[in-house]
Amino acid sequence: MKLSVIIPCYNEEKTLEEIFHKVDQFNKFEKEIIIIDDCSNDGTANVINNLKIKNPAIKTFRHDRNLGKGGGIRTGLSLATGDLIIIQDADLEYDPSDYSNLVEPFLKTDAQVVYGTRFKGGGYSRLHFFWHYVANKILTLLTNIMTNLNMSDMETGYKVFKSEAIKSIDIKEDSFGIEPEITIKLAKKKFIFYEVPISYKGRSYQEGKKITLKDAFVAVYCIFKYRFFN
């Protein structure tokens, strides 16, 4: 089995090298690492170039304009050749030591999609951003209503897919709206979802967090858009 790890990044010069090394330490399966630079304007491109020199097998691509997380994932998917595809944020909020747990349902069950949940007793979780938690719960509830799933964390950054599942849908969103878009489109196709607990080290806005209240409203729009019109 081969695992493709897609790392979309925008202005992540402080954390990208560390997260790359954490991903690279996972050696349970053959893997490829795909880094998509979403037209960063800090030193991210230099970090990627240095990593590429030391690790020639890395696949990299740089957008000539900023598209958003969805655009980065879409580009990454076009380059992925693995049997399983995992999305890995370039910050340090999500810990690649959870990969074994995320992959396990594919090995032991009929899973086609696995979401890492921050709300079912993972290893550790940083406590802050109460209103983000509330927004996430509302978005997850709306998605569950629309899909008849009982997931606990639709907005999770850790989503793992069988390649044929994620590549069967046409992803449109460039923004964080990709999270509900992917979920609803895969659910409408009756793919089989599982959840596993993960750890979470959420960062503050001072540390570089990018998602905002505006993105919550975009997500609500996307939930209804992709449930009823696409």
- How many β-strand stretches? 7
Total domain count: 1
> Which overall shape is indicated by the principal axes computed on the Cα atoms?
globular
**Number of DSSP helices?**
8
Strand order of the largest sheet: 3-2-1-4-6-5-7
What name does CATH use for the topology? Spore Coat Polysaccharide Biosynthesis Protein SpsA, Chain A
Rg over CA atoms, rounded to whole Å, is 16 Å
Structural class: alpha/beta
Binned, the helix content reads 25-40%
End-to-end Cα distance, whole Å, is 32 Å
CATH superfamily grouping: Spore Coat Polysaccharide Biosynthesis Protein SpsA, Chain A
- Main sheet record: 7 strands, mixed
CATH architecture descriptor text: Alpha-Beta Complex
- Beta-strand fraction estimate: 15-25%
Low-confidence stretches: none
Explain what the structure shows:
- There is one protein chain.
- The protein has one domain: Spore Coat Polysaccharide Biosynthesis Protein SpsA, Chain A, CATH 3.90.550.10.
- The protein is 39% helix and 17% strand.
- It is built from eight helices and seven strands, in the order βαβαβαβαβαβααβα.
- A seven-stranded mixed sheet has the order 3-2-1-4-6-5-7, sandwiched between helices.
- Helix 1 links the parallel strand 1 and strand 2.
- Helix 5 runs parallel beside helix 7.
